[in-house]
Design a protein that fits this description.
8 strands; two-stranded antiparallel sheet; 519 residues; 18 helices
């Protein structure tokens, strides 16, 4: 990682950012009092009362070179069509209500399900409050994208059904992220999944993909309720259900189709949430206002940066930074894979100013290709890190044997690696290049014996199957067997090859160093 001084090009980029921020009215930022009550960290020499952002002067902090602002996203609430004479609502909930455009679900078979889910949500105010508080970071962006595409704003509530607005949510079907994409459908919609990054968890990329997918399904079925059912069940499964009814002379509306229980409840859950948002007082629900303004901006990077370093520069907790950048599998942002960083709108200034004044390296990690004769314990010892931490950072299970050629993250030289683990939900195991099988538990089986037999870790077995207790004879386990890759079986959120082909994936990250195990 070479150090270079700033040149005119980078200074120009900083100036462009300063101008963009200065042009944005302060009220356009979402300084959300619920999530965003941290003080902005200013340099000690800042003049009281001076503008928050000044043009950073070239500084000796050469490691900051290469971080620039190529584009500023969501610096102000974008006006909607024909908005000249209509005042923009201050509360995002009201904006969502005004954009409701789906017909209400009204079916004798489904209405009781809607009522049941309304009672469940309204009867669990603490749980609903948690989901709403998570949504505050992401809702404005989703609503903006829906309106830009002319789509109903009811769809902004769909992550409440899918993931409870938890971008780290991971299902037994291996669906991941706010919008719960399975691997195959994610790839069909250009959501890259590799050792560094899983775009299914990326807020911006997954939202674009989900709205693309929903648009395609709506075009396919001509009905939003059927499109939503296909999003849950898979378009092929829904098509088969429609054909069965059609062949028997039965209606093909959502309430008449023979669908799995989960799919039968899927659209009624969204309708229940729509009804609560439309009239919360009717259900005894209090929805705290959400500012109708951008919560985050996107900063383009040209140099790798540790997530902890970025959080320190922005003056914010690292877990808050990760909640806006949840797609990263490792503690460092690899710009060759994901060349941008999402920051709260009121933290971007502090980040760039601190970056300009920092003389510390931006990253303390380097990639290393595991070689014949290498041992994890020796690599860890020679780089001043415990083997346990090395495994944790690289997502290596206790029983996984690293093969020559596999990529590891190692500390750079004698760089000080923070001792505290990053608050990630889990660092993924090595990406499976094999197939998924179903194993039926036999009497006398244990997690250890099953894991050993299939050459996987106990941690993976627990994660894949959401195991928190003891095994039962006859229980079915999902196991990812490493080996020759095969196509995914048809499952939730589509089937392989459906709807939209994936673009050519980007090149693999460039290896920045290959230290020897004795270095």
């Amino acid at each position: 990682m070479q150090r270079t001084d700033r040149g005119p090009r980078e200074i120009g980029a900083w100036l462009a950012f300063a101008v963009a921020l200065a042009a944005a009215a302060p009220s356009a930022f979402a300084v959300d009092p619920v999530l965003h009550n941290l003080p902005v960290l200013l340099p000690e020499e800042a003049t009281p009362g001076a503008p928050l952002l000044v043009m950073p002067q070239p500084a000796p902090a050469r490691d900051a070179a290469g971080v620039e602002v190529r584009e500023i996203k969501e610096l102000g609430a974008r006006s909607r069509a024909d908005q000249d004479t209509v005042a923009e609502p201050e509360d995002l909930w009201q904006r969502i209500r005004e954009g409701f455009a789906m017909p209400d679900l009204d079916n004798p078979r489904l209405n009781p399900l809607v009522a049941r889910h309304q009672a469940r949500y309204a009867g669990n105010p603490a749980q609903l409050k948690t989901v709403v508080e998570r949504s505050r970071r992401y809702l404005f962006h989703i609503v903006e994208e829906l309106e830009r595409r002319g789509m109903p704003t009811e769809l902004a509530l769909l992550p409440m059904v899918e993931s409870a607005f938890n971008p780290m949510a991971y299902s037994r079907a291996h669906a991941s992220g706010l919008w719960q994409f399975i691997p195959s459908t994610g790839r069909n919609y250009n959501l890259e999944q590799n050792w560094w990054f899983d775009a299914r968890r990326d807020i911006v990329a997954s939202t674009n993909a989900a709205l693309d997918y929903l648009s395609d399904l709506h075009e396919m079925y001509g009905d939003w309720h059927l499109a939503l059912a296909a999003y849950n069940y898979g378009e092929n499964g829904l098509a088969r259900a429609i054909e069965r009814n059609r062949a028997r002379g039965k209606p093909t509306d959502l309430g008449s189709l023979p669908l799995p229980k989960e799919t039968q409840n899927y659209v009624p859950q969204l309708q229940a949430l729509k009804n609560i948002v439309a009239a919360p007082e009717r259900f005894g629900v209090a929805l705290d206002p959400i500012p109708n303004a951008p919560y985050f901006v996107t900063v383009a990077l040209t140099r790798d940066i540790d997530l902890q370093v970025a959080a320190q520069l922005a003056g914010m907790p690292v877990d808050e930074l990760i909640s806006l950048n949840p797609g990263h599998n490792r503690p460092v942002v690899s710009t060759s894979v994901a060349p941008s960083l999402v920051l709260p709108a009121d933290r971007a200034e502090a980040f760039l100013r601190s970056l300009a004044q920092s003389s510390e390296p931006l990253s303390s990690w380097q990639t290393y290709a595991f070689q014949n004769g290498d041992r994890l314990d020796k690599l860890a010892l020679s780089h001043g890190i415990s083997e346990t931490r090395l495994r944790q950072i690289n997502g290596i299970g206790p029983r996984h044997r690293v093969a020559p050629g596999e990529t590891l993250l190692l500390p750079i030289g004698t760089a000080r690696v923070p001792s505290a683990d990053l608050p990630l939900f889990r660092l993924p195991s090595y990406a499976s290049t094999g197939r998924t099988i179903t194993y039926r538990v036999k009497r006398g089986d244990t997690l250890s014996t099953i894991a050993r037999h299939h050459h996987v870790s106990v941690d993976d077995l627990r994660r894949w199957n959401d195991i928190h207790g003891v095994l039962r004879a006859g229980q079915r386990l999902t196991i990812e067997v490493r080996g020759t890759a095969t196509a995914d079986k048809p499952t939730r959120h589509g089937t392989p090859g459906a709807v939209k082909p994936a673009k050519t994936p980007p090149a693999a990250p460039t290896q920045v160093a290959r230290p020897s195990s004795s270095s």
